[in-house]
Amino acid sequence: MPYFGVHESISNGFDGAVRTVAANGFQCLQIFSANASRWNNKAIEPGAAKKFQDAMTDAGIVMPLIHDSYLINLASVNPELLEKSIAAFTEELKRAHALGVPKVVMHPGSAKDDTRENGLARVAKSFDSIFNATPDVNVKVLLETTAGQGSYLGATFAELEAIIAASDYPDRFGVCFDTCHAFVAGYDISTRDAYDAVFDEFDRVLGLDRLEAFHLNDTVKGLGSHLDRHAHIGEGALGLEPFRLIVNDERFKETPMYLETPKAQTEDGESWDVVNLRRLKELIA
Ligand SMILES: [Zn+2]
Ligand SMILES: [Zn+2]
């Protein structure tokens, strides 16, 4: 059985998020470690980390993951925004460290008004200055495959590899494969043959050992559309087949898989997270 997780709000505290995902039947969780649409956030309060860790132990939740703030752009050409982004991502790593969360997943950013090549180099340089400034923080960064809308970087495996290869700290990186993003970026995973070809390419370019997490989302928009709209499992352009292939893939049986599907409730008053989890489990052979 794969490790299934879900993104959960911390509005009821870090420990509250743990209890919610456990009650919904998950084994893993992804959270924002602060308000994801604000630049300045407080450090983690001392008691919060212990409550979070205790809640995970009690509920049997493993492999927690933090998603970085959407404001951060480590590829920015604007020096002021770049500086703010570097400071904010440094805080992301410090909060993860304080909470005892080993990995932070992030979107590489956008290099508007510059070449993609320069943008990727700037992301690597930004990471190096962050890692240089935090020698005692041992948190890994998962670069997420993105939809590649406009000037957003990270839509190809080669772009993610370029960031890792240009960094002085290649061992600090893993990759998070988002099914919605990869598909709209042009990676067809909807049939067995296409799926095999995509993960062969991933292995060739990045190495499957770098694949440390999945985001399992269906997509409203189609292959190559570069539009990022998540849909419930099996209800979008992907359908159930790619999820069947992933959850039964022996290579990924230790790789945590997090839902980032729309929240709210179904017409029957059930949590959509519960419904999507049930759909994934039903696909397991
Ligand atoms: Zn994602
Ligand atoms: Zn997305």
Structure report:
The protein is 39% helix and 14% strand. The protein has helices at 13-23, 46-59, 79-99, 116-133, 157-166, 179-184, 192-205, 241-247, 272-282; strands at residues 4-7, 28-31, 65-67, 103-106, 140-144, 173-178, 211-216, 218-219, 230-231, 257-259. The strands form two sheets. The chain has an eight-stranded parallel barrel with strand order 1-2-3-4-5-6-7-10. It has a two-stranded antiparallel ribbon with strand order 8-9. Strand 2 (28-31), helix 2 (46-59) and strand 3 (65-67) form a beta-alpha-beta unit. Helix 3 packs across helix 4 and helix 4 (116-133) packs across helix 5 (157-166). The longest helix is centred in the first third of the chain and has 21 residues, at 79-99. The model has no long low-confidence stretch (mean pLDDT 97). It binds zinc ion (2 copies). The site of one zinc ion has 4 residues, from helix 6.
CATH architecture: Alpha-Beta Barrel
Oligomerization state: single chain
Q: What is the name of the CATH class?
A: Alpha Beta
Percent range for β-strand residues: 5-15%
Q: What's the total helix number?
A: 9
Keywords:
285 residues, alpha/beta, TIM Barrel, 8-stranded parallel β-barrel, two-stranded antiparallel ribbon, 9 helices, binds zinc ion
SSE layout and pairings?
Elements: E1 4-7, H1 13-23, E2 28-31, H2 46-59, E3 65-67, H3 79-99, E4 103-106, H4 116-133, E5 140-144, H5 157-166, E6 173-178, H6 179-184, H7 192-205, E7 211-216, E8 218-219, E9 230-231, H8 241-247, E10 257-259, H9 272-282
Parallel strand pairs: 1-2, 1-10, 2-3, 3-4, 4-5, 5-6, 6-7, 7-10
Antiparallel strand pairs: 8-9
The protein binds zinc ion (2 copies).
